[in-house]
Amino acid sequence: MVSKQVFLCSLGSFYLSLLLVFLLMDVYARPANSSVLKYKAVDNKDENEVLPPDHLNGLKMEMDGHLNKDFHQEVFLGKEMEEFEEDSEPQKNRRKLMVIFSKVDRNKDRRISAKELQRWIMEKTEEHFQEAVEESKVHFLAVDPDGDGYVSWDEYKIKFLASKGLNEKEIAEKVKNNEELKIDDETQEVLDNLKDRWFQADSPPADQLLTEEEFLAFLHPERSRGMLQFMVKEIFRDLDQDGDKKLSLSEFISLPVGTVEDQKAQEIDDDWVKDRRKEFEEVIDANRDGTVTMEELEEYMDPMNEHNALNEAKQMIAVADENQNHDLELEEILKYSEYFTGSKLMDYARNVHEEF
């Protein structure tokens, strides 16, 4: 990392410096999880079809315990999130944001209340749910080669290993004959963890076959209460260092083992810890006793928890509520557009009244 930074600095390139910051964020700004299974998205399309995603849209916490840095934008923009690109024309983005504002403002009083934003967040979350359902249908077909409407663990295992570069026909033959599979230890551990999750998704009566609905729960545990509980247990396994079935603040904000090599990385770590601490103390720890139980984390993780949606709406309003009237006005949202959309708008106030 140090040699790379020296090289980038020697180039004196602004864009490469930005790239370095993102690399540092990826390496340093994450907790010290013990599990090998991270469910990371990759570029290979086939693997994405069979490996459960790490990132679940509309959830405030990732499946490996990381906070979702795009959460606010996901529950504010929904499917329109991709339209707000950094290099898009500011005027077009401003108009798109005005349209969204008018949709959230149900009573047309030119203010967004916490209740209105809560309803909008719930709608956008449900929108993400429906998107997950449609994607899961496509992926289910990819791992159900005989088209019988059920997927066995062996069928899934064959597709998964094929996506890792192994010959699918050879793997299928070995699985059929119960022959030993020669795979590396890391892939085997991932496979073992996936198998645990597979059986958790197999609703009673357990038959080791997943229906399309059960397969959806396997890929998207946020859709199932039982799988949501399983996801919480996985996060506890990674973060609960003393095994007391509770998360302390120090466990929740734990940083990776190793030293920080430069000031920039230290600043990133400090911001990461600040965000984690605030979320722990103000939101997740519901009874404010200094620890988080599995039940508290489950409530926090539940994307359709209306209380959480209202709490999130109030937090989002507080970020931009400059006049302190506990509502969001158009000028405020436009001014803080980067928080809501990821896109920074210039001259936000100049044309607001003539365009809206």
Primary descriptors:
two-stranded antiparallel ribbon; CAB45_EFh; disordered N terminus; two-stranded antiparallel sheet; 356 residues; mainly alpha; 18 helices; disordered C terminus
In short:
Keywords: Calcium, Glycoprotein, Golgi apparatus, Metal-binding, Repeat, Signal. Residues 1-29 form the signal peptide. The chain is mainly α and 356 residues long.
Task: Describe the protein in words.
This protein is mostly helical and 356 residues long. The chain has a domain at 70-150 and 211-255 and 264-353. Helix content is 58%, strand content 3%.
Share of helix, binned: 55-70%
Major beta sheet, strand line-up? 1-2
Rg, nearest Å: 23 Å
Give the averaged pLDDT, no decimals. Answer: 80
Write the layout of secondary structure elements.
Elements: H1 2-11, H2 14-28, H3 45-50, H4 71-77, H5 90-104, H6 114-143, E1 151-152, H7 153-163, H8 168-176, H9 185-201, E2 209-210, H10 212-219, H11 225-239, E3 246-248, H12 249-252, H13 263-284, E4 291-293, H14 294-301, H15 306-320, H16 330-335, H17 337-341, H18 352-355
Antiparallel strand pairs: 1-2, 3-4
